[in-house]
Amino acid sequence: QVQLVESGGGSVQAGGSLRLSCVASGRTFSNYTMGWFRQAPGKERQFVSIINWSGGITYYAGSVKGRFTISRDNAKNTVYLQMNSLKPEDTAVYYCAATNGPTITTLAGNYRYWGQGTQVTVSS
Predict the structure, then answer these.
(1) Helical (H) or strand (E) element with 34
(2) Contact call for residues 110 and 99 (beta carbons, < 8 A)
(3) Which of 31 and 63 is assigned the larger pLDDT?
(4) pLDDT over 90 at 34, yes or no
(5) 48 close to 39: Cβ distance less than 8 angstroms
(6) Nearest to 36 by CA among 20, 25, 57
(7) Measured between alpha carbons, how far is 16 from 9 in angstroms, rounded to an integer?
(8) Given a cut of 80, is residue 27 above it in pLDDT?
């Protein structure tokens, strides 16, 4: 019903940058809250950042504040995650997610639609 496809992952040395993209199709995109989550080996899926439908409200996990920036372009049905000053602990599979619920939430369980994930690896 709603398809999300991430891209932009890769391998980078500590201190480097990557930009992730997520393109949505199958439904109108503008009214959805979008989120980025990540999952490292042996760990549970973790909140990274969310952005509301207009782009006027954003939230970040404390571990990425000041380093990551979330944005969206509704005309292109795309959400972005700019990641700067990357650290080895940022290594994970990164997923984008979407919800059309009435509240803005950081809980992964509240997001119905998910992408396939893109690998980010940061070396020391």
Answers:
(1) strand 33-39
(2) yes
(3) 63
(4) yes
(5) no
(6) 20
(7) 12
(8) no
